[in-house]
Each structure stands twice: as structure tokens, then as C-alpha cells.
Write a structure and sequence with these properties.
2 copies of one chain form a homodimer. With 197 residues, chain A is of the alpha/beta class. Helix content of chain A is 43%, strand content 11%. Chain A contains 8 helices and 6 strands; from the N terminus they run αααββαβαβαβαβα. In chain A, α7 links the parallel β5 and β6. At the A-B interface, α1, α2, α3, β2 and α5 of A face α1, α2, α3, β2 and α5 of B.
Chain lengths: 197, 197
């Protein structure tokens, strides 16, 4: 078959995360089989996406308004900032409904091998927020990976100059998990972070 | 967060097959993080999809031209028709490069419980093709499921009136599979379909 509209769509869809050539094909045929209004709506949303959504000038998460609804919400606790790697982490934490403070999106993690140094992240902006606003706690919510740990350690160091609490999300056995299948590092963390009951 | 462009995109993406709310979110953020030209191209393809692609009037597969490139290809064997359930099956078989004949898309399988009877499928068109063109073999390539078997049995019966060969794709152990993990029905089929070596 020659390169046609279907092949082009499949090749575009297969660039999405977690989507291989087979699933892209399945998606494309699903869209073809579905009511044309579905493809139309999807096309419209995609066409307008980058105009509608930009980064919040305060916290760096994606938003339609500026500042974002979270930063603008006076009912939230503005004295706690949760620092995350990417904008999508804000969504995940919001959905857990566990946190009622503000966020700060770093835009990545320190990774010297990939050429990402502290200067490439929004650490300066975070420092400014801590300096200007009456922040009493910064929660470091990077993933418990090498890069996440490195970044957390760096932030811990630079935030020392302020008289605030700096905490890190607990790392350990996932709820519903099994000791038998936990890796050594996770087990070690859950020992070091054990709590009195 | 209020319902915004991002939420609408996530909700549309999560309607794709195999895409849950989490992967839809990951996709949406990936699109936001990517160059805006990606969202633009995807939007354009989706907007034009249903205009560009329609069903081949001969075989029923999706195509830009009519008849489709496969039906129009005189170098292919027009005396063999491979009958498949859905248009995407044509793609899968074409990619295997195993078959050089023509196709016929049924548009479904006989499933009385879902209200799909032979009259809802393109069986009449298949009969017409067999009657008019000099077809010598029809390969039934439905999935080896209850509905697939029922449909194959039905087609076998109605195709009896023609003096042609009717075959069915072999069913049995998948290559690289393991006897230990084969279900009883697959094992039974591979015994019944065993071949002399």
C-alpha cells in the first residue's frame, strides 16, 4: 500500500508515549470506525491546544489562566510548596487529593550525563518564591531515582539559607506490595525510614 | 482544577482502544511538551481523515482511491479471496507479506446475541464476487473464536454452491509458544490439525 492518510496518522500516533506501531494502527482504525465527529473534536482540541495552554508564570504547571487556578486559589495553603519534576506530576498529586498547598515545577531533574545542570531548572524561581512569600515548608516530591535523589540533595543544600522546613516524600514498600518482590534499595529505604507505631 | 482544554483532550484520548485515563494524561502532556508542529500535524490528519479515507467498493477495506490499491493491482492473484472480519486485518496480513491475493472485509462476525446476523455482513457482496469473477479459492481468515468459527461455518455452507476451494487459516500453537501455557482448546486444535512431517 502506498503512503496514504492512514499511514501518516499511524506514524504520528506511534510517536505518543507507550504507543507502538500496532497500537497506533488499532487507534487509527478505531478513529476511522468511530463517528467522524470524534476525529473532528480531537482535531479541534489538538489544533487549539498550544494556544489555550501555557505555563503558569508562578509555579510552571500547564494552565489556561495565569496564574493557574491552584496558585490563584486563596483557600489553599500558600505557605507550603511541593516541588515536582514535571507538570504532569501536579495532576497526579492533585488527583490524590492529599495536598492542599502550592506547587513548583522544576522542568526536569539534574542529570549531568544528559547535560541538565541546576541552571536548566527553575530553581532560581523557587528560591525567589521562598524568599518573597512567607513559605514555611518545601516538600521535595521528585521520584526516588538517582536523578531525583541528586536533585533533592541539591535543593536541600540551597534551601538551607532560609529558615524553613524541607521535607521529602517517604520512600518504601508500595501499599499492597509484597516484601518478596521488593528490590534491595526499596527495602533498604523502608528500613531507614521506618516509623514508630 | 476546572475543566479546561487539557482535560477535554485527556477525556477524548482516553476513548482510544487500550488507552486509560493515566496513559491519556501521559499522552496529553507529551503533546504539550513536544513541538507545537506535532499537535498541528496530528490535528490536520484527523480533520481530513474521514474525507480522505473511505471503504473500497469491491473489498470493503479502507482506502483513498476506489477500488483500493490491492483490488486494482493486476500483479496480484485475483483468483484467491481472503475473507477477514475487519479492515485492520487486511493491514496485518499485508504486513506479513504472506498473501498475494485479494481481500474481502465482512464488517463483523455473526453474533446472534449482539444482534449481528449474516444479513448485517457483506456476505452478499462476497457471493457476487465469487459468482462474477473467476475465483478458485476463498480463504476464511476469521479469528479462531466462537463468533469466528460460527461465521466460517456459515460461509463454508453458503459457498458450497460454487465449485471452488474453501480453506481456513490453521489454528494451533503460536510459534515460540510453550505447550505448558497453551489452553486446552488451542492444544486440541493443534492435535486435530496436525500435519505429516
Amino acid at each position: 500500500m502506498s503512503i496514504n492518510a492512514l499511514d501518516r496518522l499511524v506514524s504520528l500516533l506511534s510517536k505518543l508515549p507507550g504507543v507502538g506501531k500496532k497500537s497506533a494502527g488499532r487507534m487509527a482504525y478505531h478513529i476511522l470506525d468511530a463517528d467522524p465527529s470524534y476525529a473532528g473534536m480531537l482535531a479541534e482540541e489538538l489544533a487549539g491546544l498550544h494556544q489555550a495552554i501555557h505555563r503558569c508564570s508562578v509555579c510552571g504547571s500547564f494552565t489556561e489562566s495565569d496564574p493557574c487556578p491552584i496558585c490563584a486559589d486563596s483557600s489553599r495553603d500558600h505557605s507550603i510548596i511541593c516541588v515536582v519534576e514535571r507538570a504532569q506530576d501536579v495532576r497526579v498529586i492533585e488527583e490524590s487529593k492529599e495536598f492542599r498547598g502550592l506547587f513548583h515545577v522544576l522542568g526536569g531533574l539534574i542529570a549531568p550525563l544528559e547535560g541538565i545542570s541546576p541552571g536548566n531548572l527553575t530553581i532560581g524561581q523557587l528560591m525567589n518564591r521562598v524568599r518573597k512569600d512567607s513559605v514555611r515548608e518545601v516538600i521535595l516530591a521528585m521520584n526516588p531515582t538517582i536523578e531525583g535523589d541528586t536533585t533533592a540533595l541539591y535543593l536541600q543544600k540551597v534551601l538551607k539559607e532560609f529558615n524553613i522546613e524541607v521535607t521529602r516524600l517517604a520512600s518504601g514498600l508500595p501499599v499492597g506490595g509484597d516484601l518478596e518482590y521488593a528490590d534491595r534499595l526499596t527495602l533498604s529505604r523502608s528500613f531507614r525510614g521506618r516509623i514508630k507505631v
